[in-house]
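User: I'm writing a tutorial on reading structure tokens. Could you give me a worked example: one chain, its sequence, then its tokens, then a sentence or two explaining what the tokens reveal?
Assistant: Sure. Here is the example chain.
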Amino acid sequence: MDPVSLNLAPTPRKFNISFNGTAGEYFKIWIVNVALTVLTLGLYYPWAKVRTRRYFYANTELDGHRFDYLADPKNMLKGYLLIYSAIIIYVLGINQIIPIVIGGIMIFALGILSPYFIAASLRFWMHNTSYRNVRFHFNGTTGDAYGIFWGYGLLSYITLGILFPYMRMKISDYVFGNVSLGKSPFFYKGEAGAFYKIYLTAFAIIVGFIIAVLIIFAAGTALFATAMEGSGLGEGAESAAIIGVIAVYLLYIPAFILISGFIGAKLLQYNYSVLSLGYNDEITFESDITVGRYIWVTFTSIIVTILTLGLASPWAKVRATKMVVESISLESKNGSLGSHEALAASDQSATGEAASDAMDFDLGF
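And here are its predicted structure tokens:
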């Protein structure tokens, strides 16, 4: 082989993503957003959301370029007014109609429409996200959303959760596998086996934790009851039981953070390990986040936020974003992120975005 041709062969290159935002900068945006949203009785919320996303996108950097969020708050306001008008009508009308009837109708309607709102929210979110002046696009259909969230959701319920990991894999496939950067598609190659491994391990951790708590609770109750009765301070068993219940309740929060942190970190690692951009896997992804770091950042952020009565929430958000974003890297086969041709697309309705906010759907993945 000609040595010259060897020198011309493309060299793979790794690209790291950096997040340059700071808690101090975001706190100024956050406090103004909160104040104006309260003063305008919520009408400022779309502007607050756009300002927040633009700040985080503008501080996310890849190969010397930053992301941008292009949504128009005025268009978002229409969607929010529509959704929250329905909520207000429900709140005002619940006292005029049998509560159980209107409540049941509302829950049924939200359940029926939730896959539509999720699909619409993803289309709106991606359409208004850009990198190097090229918009992202979400091509997933509303029908697929109903098949996953209703079809597999119902099967997961019928099988007592046995199919839940498979449904979670289908959700990741729906979200990641239907995104494109301009005309360049993302490909997701996840397998159900990996999801079952993650959730079965989490289940084993839960079972182990419960057994450990029960043993400690039983031993502690017996020792405390004996000490109380020996000191003549009254019924030791009853007091010990009350203290034990309180202790178990206090352990619930760290246990929840432990399990959710394990699942969150493992899903992040796996989802990016099977994600690529381009038809020939020209660009692949990786997340080097660790379970320990994920749990530590989450736990300490919650504690500090509680102790500061919520004032540390901007710091917590910046910290979590930096942790996740900077764990993600890309590797290009030819050493470049390449050029991506823009895809013409019509504007997307903000109703889905508003509904997902109102119902607190987590679409971050």
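What the tokens reveal: The chain has twelve helices and ten strands. The longest strand covers residues 13-19.
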